[in-house]
What does this fold into?
Amino acid sequence: MADENFDVYEGLSWSERARHGVFGVALDCADTIGRKNSFIDSVHKIALARALRGLRRRFDRALDFGCGGARLMPLLASFAKVTYGVDRTPDCIAMAQAANVVPDERLVLWRDGPLPFEDDFFDLFLSAYVLLRTAVLDAAFPELARVTAAGGNGILIEQLDNGRGLTVERYHEVFDRTGFRVIEAHPIRRSSGSRWLRFASSKRCPPSLCRVAARGEIASASRTRFHAGTKGYFDCLFVLERLA
Ligand SMILES: C[S@@+](CC[C@H](N)C(=O)[O-])C[C@H]1O[C@@H](n2cnc3c(N)ncnc32)[C@H](O)[C@@H]1O
It folds into this structure.
């Protein structure tokens, strides 16, 4: 864990990824055509909107943890009175500022130590594609727990991947240890072999059908049981409640 460099993921730094823009930093920076990233983005936005609506409440203060270029922040902000973003990469904070979703003073560069918020400050947080290694999960969750009030919610759009140790059991162990209850958890997208992705990426598919394909992907992935023998990674939605 001491050797972990949180500025680099799979050989490329977050700053380098940020040169590829809001989708490039968050999703597949090699997707120059953009169809794959539009598809993944639609999957995430549909899943996030459903999760937020499903909680049937409005929030006072929301945190977009690892906000990148604020890709999901407008949706998050539409369910909260006030929204903040934190990120460890200055180039990502600059991108989020340029997106102009929330005032600059609510976009905070944070790298180590306690998050710069009081205990119980938020009643909602989102983490999307940030906890990509077990070391990040272990480092981030105690702080996310500290700044989330009892009864508050967390929404994760993160990855299940046996190869990286990101197993269902591993997530549950961290949630239990840091005081969260799981309200909902299921895969929303498979990383390979998806017919819906092939359809959305083909030239025959008009961009207007991207969201239809994304809904098909969520429905199909949700029926999949991720287990110890599953190959490749899945995007997974977790909806959490902070316990008292
Ligand atoms: C794949 S991007 C996702 C960005 C955004 N959540 C989205 O879905 O569009 C990962 C982001 O997390 C940030 N990040 C990575 N590790 C982090 C950490 N330990 N604490 C805070 N931010 C982190 C990176 O700088 C990058 O902006």
